[in-house]
Amino acid sequence: MKSKTFYAAMLAAGLLSFSACDQSTKQQSTKMTDSTTVGQLPVASGFEKTIDGKATKLYVLKNSKGTQAAITNYGGRMVSMLVPDKKGTMVDVVAGPGSVSDYEDAKGNYYGALIGRYGNRIGKAKFTLEGKEYKLPANDHDNTLHGGKEGFDVKVWDAKQIDDHTLELSYVSADGEQGFPGTLKTTVTYKLTDDNAIEIAYNATTDKATVVNLTNHAYFNLNGCGAGSILKHTLQIDANGFTPVDKTLIPTGKIATVQGTPFDFRKATTIGSRINEGDEQLKSGQGYDHNFVLNKHTLQTPIATVQGDVSGIVMEIFTEEPGIQFYSGNFMKGAFKFKGDKKDDNRTAFALETQHYPDSPNKPEFPSTELKPGQTYKTTTIYKFSAK
Ligand code: BGC
């Protein structure tokens, strides 16, 4: 359904003063204050569908600062995040589609989705655990990417909106689903805090030994959804090392130093400044598509900071995970419909997916992703926004 959209609905509900999806031109920024053209984001009804007998819906979280996050229980996806830029204009920094049907069309890109059971790749679509080999569906070369052909990103999660700030999503993955052992009971809580942060808390238990690596695959453009290239954003990652990959993006098992390579983001650097340098690793990923080995950290200190060059919006990431996949949107081919009648396009958004390292189930030298009965998988990641 096409309409005056989600933003207009929010305006009508008095939740928002104005909005933006593309601030890249003067003409568009003039339009932003005109409520008749605030048609940048989808209406809530674009999210009302029945899939596998379960209802999908859009949930809106808000805080005392006027910041809002919209999440759908279809794949537990972060649909939008409206935060103020340096001038106080609200900008939607989440890039991606604006209805369940558009997400279905763009399935392989995992826009905004919760990823499970295993975020990132498992080599040769198999692993051995406690002496038993488990075969998974291959959906990326011969490998399994983001939990297989029917991962958590296409499941309808049970949703409970606890209050204005908090949405709790649950999904029970049956023993053997996508080849993984054990019934995995998963709960993910999104919480929008008053300091303009979206906190994602993951929790899972199993009844058989298994592997688990949950993450969120939001694509961000800090200048606004559809606002063009992200190559001039600055990025800082607190990582001395990264995991080099083979041609199919499976880690070799080594941890390489970032020193003297285009992977050194220890000081804030523009994303695009070294992306075309001809580095072999960048060729394999057709850009950045690599796991960074985070330096020792706690949830109190950001491990990555990104800033939009036009908006001044700063996103800080805090996590309990040991790694982060930096994906510079290399395979966005202009085929999918985004919010605000935009299209995706190469490198118009980036993802920073907090995680355990790719292919850990086959790499005993990497931190373990095993979960046993009686244990609880528990991890939190926070994306915090400000502007300067
Ligand atoms: C992967 C990319 C992939 C993208 C969308 C990222 O997490 O690392 O290789 O193209 O997700 O599927």
From TrEMBL:
GO BP: any one term: glucose metabolic process
Class of enzymatic activity (EC top level): isomerase
GO cellular component, one term: cytoplasm
Reactions the enzyme catalyzes: alpha-D-glucose = beta-D-glucose
Enzyme Commission identifier(s): 5.1.3.3
Keyword set, alphabetical order: Calcium, Carbohydrate metabolism, Isomerase, Signal
Organism superkingdom: Bacteria
Annotated pathway: Carbohydrate metabolism; hexose metabolism
Active site positions, chain numbering: 217, 353
Annotated region described as Disordered, given as residue ranges: 353-373
Endpoints of the signal sequence: 1-22
Classification via CDD domains: galactose_mutarotase_like
Cofactor dependency: Ca(2+)
PROSITE patterns for this protein: ALDOSE_1_EPIMERASE (PS00545), PROKAR_LIPOPROTEIN (PS51257)
Single GO term (MF): carbohydrate binding
Keyword Signal: yes
Annotated beta-D-galactose binding sites: 120-121, 217-219, 289
Subunit comment: Monomer.
Similarity comment: family membership: Belongs to the aldose epimerase family.
UniProt-recorded name of the protein: Aldose 1-epimerase
